[in-house]
What we know:
- The chain is of the alpha+beta class and 518 residues long.
- Helices cover 60% and strands 16% of the residues.
Amino acid sequence: MVVTLLAVAYGVAAAGTAVMAAVDWRRRQRSAAFRVIAFVGGAIAVSNLLSLCQLLTGAPGAFAGLVVAQTVILPVISAGVVCMSLVHSDRGWRLSHRAAALLGVTPVVMAVAACLPAGRELIVSAVRSVPEMGILIATPGPLSWACVGIIQVLLVGSAIRVFVLRRRATSAEQRRLCNRVLITYLIPMVVAFIGSALPLHGLDVIPIGQALSMVYVHVAWIGRMSRQMPVAHRTIFSTISDAVLVADPDGHIIEANPAALVLLGRTADDVTGLGVTELGELDLDRRHATEQTLVDLHLQINPVHDGRGIFLGWVLVGRDLTESNQRRRKAEEDAGQLREQLETIKLLQANLAEQARRDALTGLPNRRHLMERLTTLAAERAVISLAVIDLDHFKSINDAYGHAGGDAALVHTAQMLAAAVRDDDLVARYGGEEFVVVFRGVTPETAWSRIDALREQLAASTIELGGEAVTVTMSAGVSGTSAADDVDGLLRQADEAMYEAKHRGRNRTQLHGLTVVG
């Protein structure tokens, strides 16, 4: 009678936990806890099935093999129970690689031992018969006792951790979670205690206690989770700031959250039954999630299928982007204005830099620019020639026609000089009525020839000052070098040659070191 009752208990426990494990496995996408519970439930179902087979077999060899297999499963169940308990009681707990390795050591060792003849003898040292009950009983070996000891340490340690978490809990809900976990540990212990008081001759009833723990897990844990999930989903649905619409397979709205009603400016009765395409041109795809933007409303449209893959409709999540887009556009406008301002500042800086290097009256490079250019040419060891030019009788022009007349004479001369030189040459206003022309790669004699031609062109031209045609002439001095390493010396030589031209009667071109007069 006892054997029959135990067989029924093992069978019911195996079938029940297997069904619960299958159900939990189908729910695995909802929460990671369902995966762990399904794994533990499946292992407990196998353990109860092995206990049933041990009860029914009469062959010592087969019986020993079943006991060995069950001994391998026991540390697996214990590791799963620890993970399940900590996941449920401590939401911050995560299975680390180190913890997984430690939990997996005992199952791996037992599995390896079960594959070796000597190892199986360490797990089951002997098998004896109980004639009055018609069953076989195994005598555990040293490896079995070691495995049981490790399991007890593991379970007690995790139970202590849960108890400590309960003591430190700051909310009643957290304490209730810890209480449920502790009861899960307690159930197999109570069943084992009851079994020890019955005439079972050493039969292990802990698998039945583990199955009862899984029943409690489903009633107290998963049942509460299942009740909480709809409430949580409903709360999220009602309070989320995004607009959420639920549509049937025909595209008609069957539900809308408060945010959607506010966005649409309609009541729930007005929205229910409304086709979602009436909100705008929407592309409803039954297979893939899409993201679409209508004016300033961003919609994420997700097709919904049940567990069998049957299409149920769509969930549309809308977000009003009007304000954020306005901020973005304003930021883009501000950024554009800032870029324009920066460009303007750069242009102004460039103009200022250019003005600092240009003569305001003639537009020619000024003395500063000239000296920078000569310094660069000297550093390059370039062959250059230069001419210093001074307008003749400039004071008389100023006296006769005023400063405006003098300025006109300077501008006229500057324009003629700038128009006559090459791109590689440089014409600069040196100061007052003096100009400097720099020729690169030109001998002093060639430079003299070009400057003298310019002198003749200037003398042949006239400008109108005070209603009169006035001729402006110039005196020039030319110097040169094969490698410009002393720009001050070149300027001094050209200046001396210019004064020599003045001394010889003006309107002349003088080459430094030679008596050459134009």
